[in-house]
Structure of Acyl-coenzyme A dehydrogenase:
Amino acid sequence: MSFRRDKITKPIFSWARGVLPAMSDTEREALEAGDVWWDADLFTGNPDWSKLLKIAPAKLTDEERAFLDGPVDELCAMLDEWKIFWEWRDLPPDVWHFVKHEKFFGMIIPKEFGGLGFSPYAHSEVVRKISTRSIAAAVTVMVPNSLGPGELLMRFGTKEQQQRWLPRLADGRDIPCFGLTSPEAGSDAASMVDTGIICKGTFEDREVVGLRLNWHKRYITLGPVATLLGLAFKAYDPDHLVGDQEELGITVALIPTHLPGVEIGHRHLPSMQVFQNGPNRGRDVFIPLDYVIGGKERLGQGWKMLMTALAAGRGISLPSLSAAGAAYAARTTGAYARIREQFGISISKFEGVEEPLARIVATAYQLDAARRLTCAALNVGVHPAVISGIMKLHATERMRTAIDDAMDIHGGKAVIDGPQNYLGNLHRAVPVGITVEGANILTRNLIVFGQGAIRAHPYLLNEMNALADTDRERGLTAFDKAFWKHVGHSLRTLFRAFGRSWTFGAFAMAPDAGDATPFYRQLSRYSAAFALCADMALLTLGGALKRKEMLSARFGDILSELYLLSAALKRWQDEGRQKEDFAALEWCMATGFKTIENRLAEILANLPNRFVAGFLKLVVQPFGARVLGPSDRVVHQCAAIVLEPSAARERLTPDLAHVDDDGGFARLERAFLLVTSTDAIAKRMRAARIRDWKDAVTKGVITQAEGEQLASAHEAVTKVIEVDDFAPEALSPIYKKTVNVHQFFQELGEQRAAS
C-alpha cells in the first residue's frame, strides 16, 4: 500500500493538484447542498433496478386527501381565470381570505406551529390541481410553501425564530416572499451587490449589534403584498464586531416590510400573468442580528442554506405545475380532436394530428411519473439536488412543447381570447416557468451534469476533497484510496459498456418486468455507456469540462433521460403494468433512447481528444445511433388513449379541477361525453348516407330518442367551437364616447380631412 501510494499515486496526486481549478466558496456550497439518490445509481453505470422498484410510491394520507377534496375543490370553484387576469388583475379578496383561513400558505409548516404539516407529495398534489384552474392562484399558493422564509426557518431557524414566525406564516397573518434576484445578479447570485454591514444601532428603543442593509431586488413573487421578506445579501463586518473575518459571505435574514427604509415597488406583469410580483428596495434598513435566519452562527452560510432549500423546492413547485399543464393539455386536446370535424371526419383521424397528440399524451405520462418519483424521495427526507435541477429544467421545457402542440391542434379556438378559451393563458404563462428558479439555459449547460458529475459520481468528490486538503499527507492517503477505487470502477465500466453495446443490451441487468423488461436492459446499456464517456471526458478535459458547456449539456441530457425513463418504468410497475398505458410507455422509451443515442453521437463527434473519441465510439456506439423514435403504430396507440372515455384516460389525467359551470373546459367535457356516447348512432347514419337526424328517424335508421341524443351532441359541439367576441367599447376606452366603431372612424377621418 505504501509503495503504491508513494511511488505511483504521489506523482498523479501532485499533477492533479496542479491542474485542479480553484473552487469558489459558492461553488463548493452549491455542490455540498442537498443529497444524491437514484442519480448516484445511474452514474455507476450499473443501476440496481431492485432498489428503484422497492421505493415506496408517494401516497396521500386520509387528511391530505380530505383537503384536496374539500378546501382545494372549494378554492377551484371560486376561481374565474378570465376575470382574474383580464378584469381584476389579481385574486379577488374572498380568495385571499380563503387561502389564508384554510392555511394554504402553511401546508409545509408542522402542526406544532399551526400549519397543516403536509408531505411534499400533498403539497405537489395541491399545486397540481389548482394549476389546472388558475395559474395566478397556483403560484400564489406554491411560493410560500417553496423557497422562502417558511422552508428556511423550518430547516435552519432558531427555536425562538420558529416559535415567533412560523405560526404567523401558517395562518396568513404574515405573507412571505423571498428576495434573491437583483438587477446586477440574476442566475449568478454570487454577484449580488446587496449588502449588510454589521454595526451598532437602535432597534425598538434599544442599542444592539445588528445589520444595516441596502438592497435592490426584482422579480419577487408576492413581493408587492408581503409583510415578511426573506432577504439574501452579502454580509460584511468591517469593525470586527462578531469575529476576525471582514467578508462573511451571502447571508439570509427576515425583514418585516414595515421597517423604516423598506420600499415596496410597483408590480411587474410577467407574461401577462397577474400573480403578485414586483421589485423592492431597502435603504439603510437596520435589523438586529437575531433576525438573521439561524442567528449569528449562520452569518455567511446563506448560499448553502438556499441551495439546500432549493433542492426540495425545485422538485415540487414548477414540476407540479408543469405536470398539471401537460395532463390538462392531454385531456382538453384529446377531447377537442375527438369532437372537432374537418372534411367530414374527426380531426383525431388525421395522422398529422395524431403525432403531436401522442407527444402530449406521453409527456403527461412521463412528467407525472417523474413528479411522483421525486416526491417519493422528498417524502422520506431526501433532498436530491441534481434530480431537482433535472425536474425543473425538463418539466418546464416539456410542458412548453405539450402546450405548443395543444395550441396547434386547437388552432383558432385557442388563439381567440375570452372566457371560453381554456388554453390561452396557460400558453402565455409558459415562459415564466422556463425562467424562474434558475434559467433553463444555465441549468442545462452548467448544473445538471456539472453538479451531477461531482456529487453523483461514486469517487470524484472524494478525490477532489483529497486534492484540496491543506494537509498534504492526509490528502495523499485519501486520494490514493479513492483514486484506485475509481480506476477499478472505470475498468469494470469499460468492459460492461463494451459488452452491452456490442450485444445491444441483450444480457444487461434487468428485473422481471413483463413487457417492459427489454427497456430496463437498454437503460442498463446506456447507463454504462454514459458512465464510461463521462469518466473519459473528465479524465481528458479535467476542469476545462465546465467551460465546454455544449458537451456538458449533452451529458446532462443523457443523465436526465436516464432519470425520466426510470420514473416512467417505475410508474408502469407501480400502477400494475396496465396494458392500456403501455403505448405511452413505449413512446417515452423510444423517444428517450433516440435522444440518448443522438447525444452520445454528438459527444463523440465533439470530444477534443480525437483518439479517446474514436476509442469510445468503438466501445459504446460501434454501429452508430440507430434508434429512430416511436413507430407509427405506437403513435397511433398512444394518441388513442385520450380519444375515448376510459380508465387509461383517467389514470393519465387524474384530479384535474373539474368545475360544473359553463366555462370552456366544462363545455368541452360535456361535448366529449355526448359525442363518444353517440358514436354508434352517428355511424349508422353515415352508413345510410343520411346527414339530417330527422330524416334518419323518418326512415327508421335511428329512433327518435337517438336522434335527440345526436342533436344534443351537435349543440354541445357547437358551443365548444364557438369563440368569444367583444363589443369595441368592451376592449378599448377610446370607443366609449361614440355610438359605434364605424361612426368613430368616420368622425376621425373627417377631422383629419378638415385639418
